[in-house]
Design goal:
alpha+beta, Arc Repressor Mutant, subunit A, Alpha-Beta Plaits, 3 domains, four-stranded antiparallel β-sheet, 8 helices, about 25% strand, globular
Length: about 240
């Protein structure tokens, strides 16, 4: 299999095992997008795009509508985006994106996760320079047909991988994610996307061979998953899902 399979497998595992976390994550993003403009996806492009990503992650309509309705009310919640970067054992690295109403609290919680896993926080940019920011679309389609569609739409296709089960995973310039979606659906009709998101992909991966290293890295991932403000976690460990 290839990188596409790993990306899709991680996405499917997250959807199956961490639905509550995913709903909370997209709930915040939907609320912010609706609060930052007209709370109507037909009149608010940013909100429409967040909803498209939420639907690809199988977020139910009632979760989407509830957070739009929340934005219509008198609530004044405000969230800030923060990114934390750090180092683990044997060359492993990790990036954590958060959405928080209290940056000091979030930093304290993230630092606590790192300390308990014997890992170190780094400065901004100390890890992210070795990752590529990409847009990812994964769906069932014909490879050559999709390439033709995206070329005609002048989409910057970084890579495309074909899987045995008929899925293709397309990596595009992050600014072209929704341009790609729109071009594909205009040509093919409505598509069910397994993945429709921006992601940070490591340029190089590492394999942890020491049992203690694997245990520590799993520990930090588990601890971070329990932090409400954590939105996304990216890392460069190739074999962590296998242990």
């Amino acid at each position: 299999m290839g990188r596409a399979f790993q990306v899709r497998a991680a996405s499917m595992a997250a959807t199956a095992a961490k639905k509550t976390k995913i709903y909370s994550r997209f709930g915040k993003e939907i609320y912010m997008a609706a609060k930052g403009g007209v709370p109507d996806p037909e009149m608010n492009l940013n909100l429409k795009r967040v909803i498209d990503k939420a639907k690809a992650a199988q977020v139910p309509n009632d979760v989407i509508n509830r957070n739009i309705d929340k934005a219509k009310g008198n609530t004044n919640e405000a969230y800030l985006e923060n990114r934390y970067e750090g180092f683990g054992p044997s060359g492993s690295t990790i990036i954590i994106d958060t959405l928080t109403d209290n940056s000091n609290r979030t930093l304290s919680e993230i630092r606590g996760c790192f300390n308990k896993a014997k890992m170190n926080l780094g400065k901004a940019g100390s890890v992210s320079y070795s990752y590529d920011h990409v847009g990812i679309l994964s769906f069932v389609a014909d490879e050559e047909e999709i390439l033709d569609i995206l070329m005609l739409a002048e989409v910057d296709v970084i890579d495309l991988e074909l899987e045995e089960d008929g899925y293709i995973t397309v990596y595009v310039n992050p600014t072209d994610l929704f341009k790609s979606k729109d071009a594909i659906e205009e040509a093919k009709g409505e598509i069910e996307f397994l993945i429709l998101e921006h992601r940070m992909l490591p340029q190089e991966t590492v394999v942890l061979t020491d049992d203690e290293d694997i245990t520590l890295f799993k520990r930090v991932l588990t601890l971070l998953d329990d932090v409400d403000d954590v939105q996304n976690v990216y890392h460069n460990v190739e074999n962590i899902e296998e242990n």
